[in-house]
């Protein structure tokens, strides 16, 4: 992972509210993501995490600074975005939704269905290919959205709290599945979450943003080996890293919910 995949330099966004007030959402963001790295971005509500992903996805134009994507051969990279809420097309079935990115890139039907079928099977969705989103649970819908992102040819994935609406058991299963997919594909991932535990389970590195306007407060490397089961068997290294992250967010009282036994 020696080459950069994403670089943000003094990135910022200021916009005007409906009342005409100038609001600074992001200010002076400087960070980079290496090829094949899984980076989580956390911070308080309203700090600009989703805004950052929308800028990186090309849905918003920054008003300050710049960002660049690179593929390993130096060309500009492509991105795929997984939204917080279900983003499946209701008129398409599971297979059509999962293979949509490949269809947009001109991949033939047989090939795109072959790729999507393999991924759907890995996530326990075999046999549901002809179902429509209305026939799926919330967790299944998000798994289809994740499949769509992974089977696309985009080397960089942007994920906006994709598991936030899931119950705890389904969320833990989805986290495990995401790690397994990432380890097999080694795409570069920028993952937004409010949940420090989720960031610790998934990430190579965690970027902490301040309250609005969002700027980088700190970065932490997560060195524990995967799979990480320390939520069930608390680990002192994980505890100390969580303490440091919560301290940077001014939330040390939250540690009372996560203690280790001596």
Quick synopsis:
The chain is of the alpha/beta class and 262 residues long. The chain has a domain at 1-71 and 192-262: P-loop containing nucleotide triphosphate hydrolases (Rossmann fold, 3-Layer(aba) Sandwich), CATH 3.40.50.300.
Describe the structure.
The chain is globular. It is α/β, with parallel strands linked by helices and 262 residues long. It has a domain of 142 residues: Rossmann fold (3-Layer(aba) Sandwich), CATH 3.40.50. The C terminus is likely disordered. A 6-stranded mixed β-sheet has the order 5-6-7-3-8-9, sandwiched between helices. The protein is 32% helix and 24% strand. Helix 6 links the parallel strand 6 and strand 7.
The total beta strand count reads: 9
Task: Bin the helical content.
Answer: 25-40%
**Could you spell the SSE succession in H and E letters?**
EEEHEEHHHHEHEHEEH
Number of helices: 8
Shape category: globular
| CATH domain topology of one domain | Rossmann fold
N-to-C span:
36 Å
Instruction: Report the major sheet.
Output: 6 strands, mixed
Strand order of the largest sheet: 5-6-7-3-8-9
Strand composition percent: 15-25%
Mind telling me the CATH class of one domain? Alpha Beta
Low-confidence segments, given as residue ranges, are: 258-262
CATH architectural category of one domain: 3-Layer(aba) Sandwich
Fourth-tier CATH superfamily name of one domain: P-loop containing nucleotide triphosphate hydrolases
Q: What is the averaged pLDDT score?
A: 86
Which class do the helix and strand fractions yield? alpha/beta
**Rg from alpha-carbon coordinates:** 19 Å
């Amino acid at each position: 992972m020696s080459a950069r995949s994403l670089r943000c330099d003094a990135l910022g966004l200021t916009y005007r509210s409906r009342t005409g007030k100038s609001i600074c959402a992001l200010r002076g963001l400087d960070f980079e993501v290496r090829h094949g790295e899984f980076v989580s971005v956390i911070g308080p509500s309203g700090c600009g995490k989703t805004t950052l992903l929308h800028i990186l996805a090309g849905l918003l134009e920054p008003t300050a600074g710049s960002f660049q994507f690179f593929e390993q051969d130096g060309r500009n990279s492509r991105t795929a975005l997984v939204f917080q809420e279900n983003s499946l097309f209701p008129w398409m079935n599971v297979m059509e939704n999962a293979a949509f990115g490949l269809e947009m890139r001109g991949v033939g039907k047989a090939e795109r269905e072959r790729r999507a079928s393999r991924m759907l099977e890995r996530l326990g969705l075999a046999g549901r290919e002809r179902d429509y989103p209305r026939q799926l649970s919330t967790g299944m819908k998000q798994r289809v959205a994740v499949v769509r992102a992974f089977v696309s040819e985009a080397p960089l994935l942007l994920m906006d709290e994709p598991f936030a609406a899931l119950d705890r058991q389904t969320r833990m299963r989805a986290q495990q599945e995401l790690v397994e997919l990432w380890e097999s594909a080694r795409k570069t991932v920028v993952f937004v979450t409010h949940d420090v535990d989720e960031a610790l389970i998934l990430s190579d590195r965690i970027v902490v943003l301040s309250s609005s306007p969002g700027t980088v407060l700190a970065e932490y490397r997560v060195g524990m080996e995967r799979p990480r089961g320390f939520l069930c068997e608390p680990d002192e290294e994980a505890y100390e890293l969580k303490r440091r992250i919560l301290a940077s967010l001014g939330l040390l009282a939250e540690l009372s919910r996560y203690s280790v036994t001596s």
